[in-house]
Structure formats: structure tokens, C-alpha cells
Amino acid sequence: MAKISKNRKAALEKADLTKEYSLADAASVVKDITFTKFDASVDIDVRLGVDPRKADQMVRGIVTLPHGTGKEVKVLALVTPDKEQEAKDAGADFVGLDDYIQKIEKGWTDVDVIITMPAVMAKVGRLGRILGPRNLMPNPKSGTVTQDVAKAVKEVKAGKIDFKVDKFGIIHTSVGKVSFSAEQLAANAAEVIQTLNRLKPSSAKGTYIKSITLSSTMSPAVIVDKNATI
């Protein structure tokens, strides 16, 4: 029989991990069963009834969390000189073009989001083999390739996140930190779920949202009742 860790044993004493909770209660339970000494991230995992191998069932979108992510997001703006001050004023951490492209080609990727303009995508495009595997490649669908650079930077800094279904049909994204209130975590998670419902592919048959769980960085998963999520 596998040995149960001290933290998991403590979690089992505080909550029934086989039970389905409302979103608000699940958020509260996650806070109760997280014992890390750091401010752990809280994540939502939603299993969808889609086949990601089919192009018309690839669920991808953006959502602005009402209470932000709780994470300091480092933004790189790859823009032309006339847009540099605009990007800086909006809060971009790094601003430039050719110099940063050269840094990235040498292996530098110490950013969370890259925002750029349609006019320079020809230059940025050659970074795909480096940025693609790290999910950093700018994409018009996620709002990171735009002429309105300032707006894009401000939205990302305010809690806008990009998500897409993985090869197993699961959406995995952060909805805040353990230091958030249960109400804030529930509101952020609800926004993700509502966005996923709006993105339901017309070709997806049967049950669309199959399961939802909340967990922190090192906590067990708490099952959310998908019929009582809001």
C-alpha cells in the first residue's frame, strides 16, 4: 500500500476529495488544504468532450480574469521605434525589436508574454522554433499581434490570459493565488468556465464539459460540480 504524505493526510482530514463541491466551496477547500510556505498558484482543469486532433474542435481563447492572476507578468513588446514609448507607458517590461530578436535567437526567453505588431511579424516569425515550444509565439487570435500595442499590454498586465485545449482535451490555466479570497478565486474560475461555454465548437457532440477540478500548486485536486459552477 502506497504511503500517504503528511500534507495529503492533513488534506484528507479537512475535506472529502471524492465529493463534488460548488465552485465557491471548492475554492474555499483548496485554500484550506494548501500547506505551502509560499503563495501557491490556484489552477483550474476542465476536461472537454472535444477531439483536439480535429481543427474544428480546437478550443482556444482569451479571458480577462476579474481579479487578475496575482502574478507579476513580464511583457516584451517587439515594436517599431514609433510605438516604443506607447508600449513603455502601457507598462511593458521590455521594449525593442532587432536587439531583442537577436537575444531570443541566442536563447533568451525570460518573459511571460510577447506582444508585437502585424508590420513586424515577418521578423518575429523566424523565432517560431524557439518561442513555439514555450507557448510564447505572438498570435492574432490571442490578441498579441495587434496595432493597438498599448491596449494589449494593459490587458495582459490586468489579468488577461490565453488558453488552449491540450492533446488530451483538457484546458489547464491559473485562476489566481491561494492568498486570494475564495470569492475572488470562484469569480475568476467562473469567468473561465463561461468563456469555455461560449467557445463550444458546433461540431462537438455529447457532453461538452466533462469534469472540472481546482487545485493549488501542491494540493490534491478538488472536484467541482459542473452543474453548480456559477
Concise synopsis of the structure shown:
This protein is α/β, with parallel strands linked by helices and 230 residues long. The chain has helices at 6-14, 23-32, 81-90, 98-105, 121-124, 128-131, 149-158, 182-198; strands at 20-21, 41-48, 60-64, 75-78, 94-96, 113-116, 160-164, 170-177, 209-216, 222-224.
Distance between the termini: 39 Å
Q: Give the helix proportion (percent range).
A: 25-40%
- Spatially, the strands of the biggest sheet line up as 1-10-9-2-8
What percent strand?
A: 15-25%
User: Given the helix and strand composition, which structural class is it?
Assistant: alpha/beta
Q: What is the count of helical runs?
A: 8
Mean pLDDT level: 91
Along the chain, the helix and strand elements come as HEHEEEHEHEHHHEEHEE
From the alpha carbons, calculate the radius of gyration and give it in angstroms: 19 Å
What is the total tally of β strands?
A: 10
Unreliable runs? none
In this structure, how is the largest beta sheet organized?
5 strands, mixed
**CA-based shape:** globular
Subunit structure: Part of the 50S ribosomal subunit.
InterPro entries: Ribosom_uL1_bac-type (IPR005878), Ribosomal_uL1 (IPR002143), Ribosomal_uL1-like (IPR023674), Ribosomal_uL1/biogenesis (IPR028364), Ribosomal_uL1_3-a/b-sand (IPR016095), Ribosomal_uL1_CS (IPR023673)
Keywords: Repressor, Ribonucleoprotein, Ribosomal protein, RNA-binding, rRNA-binding, Translation regulation, tRNA-binding
Family: Belongs to the universal ribosomal protein uL1 family.
